[in-house]
Amino acid sequence: QVQLVESGGGLVQPGGSLRLSCVASGSIFNIYAANWYRQAPGKQRELVAIISSTGSTNYADSVKGRFTISRDNAKNTVYLQMNSLKPEDTAVYYCNVRMSWGQGTLVTVSS
Questions:
Q1: pLDDT tens digit string along 18-53?
Q2: What is the DSSP code (8-state) at residue 47?
Q3: Distance (Å, rounded) from C-alpha 78 to C-alpha 51?
Q4: Which residue from 5, 27, 69, 95 has the highest number of Cβ atoms inside 10 Å of its Cβ?
């Protein structure tokens, strides 16, 4: 199994940037795909980005061109670089690998 811990959330103004990190432990992380989800107040959890074990990526239409998912297998870490943030990006962001989930990190985009 994989244990995951997210960090990097916070309060940012519209147009700003944040980088989220997800540190994995307890398994052979490098052979699995990793995902970022988010859940806004009153909304269902949605898939934001995915990165495969080989490094291929996919994004939700709402974040294409603004967010970048990456991984550093040597550090057992997945990142989500978020640029040009909008108020509608406000949510708790979760890292997911197989059946493992992190605790989430809150991103608030507001002036």
A1: 999 999 987 667 889 999 999 999 999 999 999 999
A2: E
A3: 9
A4: 95
